[in-house]
Amino acid sequence: MVSDHRPSRRNVIRAAGGLSAAMALGTAGLLASASPASAAGDGFGLRIVDRNESDPRMWYYRFATDAIGWNPGVNVLLPDGYHTSGRTYPVLYLFHGGGTDQDFITFDRMGIRAWTAGKPLIVVMPDGGHAGWYSNPVSSNTGPRNWETFHIAQLLPWIDANFRTYAEYDGRAVSGFSMGGFGALKYAAKYYGHFASVSAHSGPASLRRDAGLVTHWANVSSAAVELGGGSVYGMPLWDEARVSADNPVQRVESYRNKRVFLVAGTSPDPVNWFDQVNENQVLAGQREFRGLLGQAGIAHEWHEEPGGHFVRPALFTRDLDGIIGRLRKA
């Protein structure tokens, strides 16, 4: 269903819930240096330790970075004709969900090449940790896990420096599934001038509802599989300022003048406890968020669909078309 405020491999994925290059809003026309990645050196706090550019569309990199205690990977999916067109392209940053089966190749496994065939868009798919929550954690016992720093202060400017991108607000979108959908909503609000479009596919939008169930899940999941007992927001006491800064429902004005696209499932698997709790929280939180957006007169498109916590390819491709429609044209 579409709200009145809308601007003009079924794979069940178990998820854990869910600048340096800042360009001010309205800096239209500013382009990146657009040097090819194959010729570019390291920079922005990143050092390439592995790479594969043999596939004409999917280029792979692994970086050493002080922000992360291991070497995170990134897939960069190039549009058809990128190498010969000479054109400059908008960019979608696409974030995977949580869980030990989720990483930067998640969307390649799911069919992202086919979904984007013929579409004039670069898609950047970085590691976000098994339960990194697209955050710099309050504490870690496994070394640095500063995913927010890696994505925003390091990877984003590196992409703009090494590919032909529009390095500006109207040249970037951010989207994700589950934990990645939360990350997309969070980054779009905290870094307002970076992304003109934001999408959350079964991504939670409310951290404090139901006694902070999503925040507790972020803490427990990150402690278990990411931080060796550390946590994203602090346990047993939260860092309340961080929760507020990351909470979409507390940042509603930060979505004004953006394209906002939300998807949630209405009928989680009745046998699957995880799916029930997860998507029920997603649905309730997105409804709360949508209500606040509507009250503020902020345009948004929303879809509630039967089923539980998984990516819906038809809505994902609809989202891609909307992203391309909102961003600068290649």
Automatic annotation (TrEMBL):
Similarity section: Belongs to the mycobacterial A85 antigen family.
Enzyme Commission numbers on file: 2.3.1.122, 2.3.1.20
Identification of the protein by name: Acyl-CoA:diacylglycerol acyltransferase
SUPFAM superfamilies per record: alpha/beta-Hydrolases (SSF53474)
Key words of the record: Acyltransferase, Signal, Transferase
Signal peptide (UniProt feature, chain positions): 1-39
Catalytic activity: an acyl-CoA + a 1,2-diacyl-sn-glycerol = a triacyl-sn-glycerol + CoA; 2 alpha,alpha'-trehalose 6-mycolate = alpha,alpha'-trehalose 6,6'-bismycolate + alpha,alpha-trehalose
Pfam family, any one: Esterase
PROSITE patterns: TAT
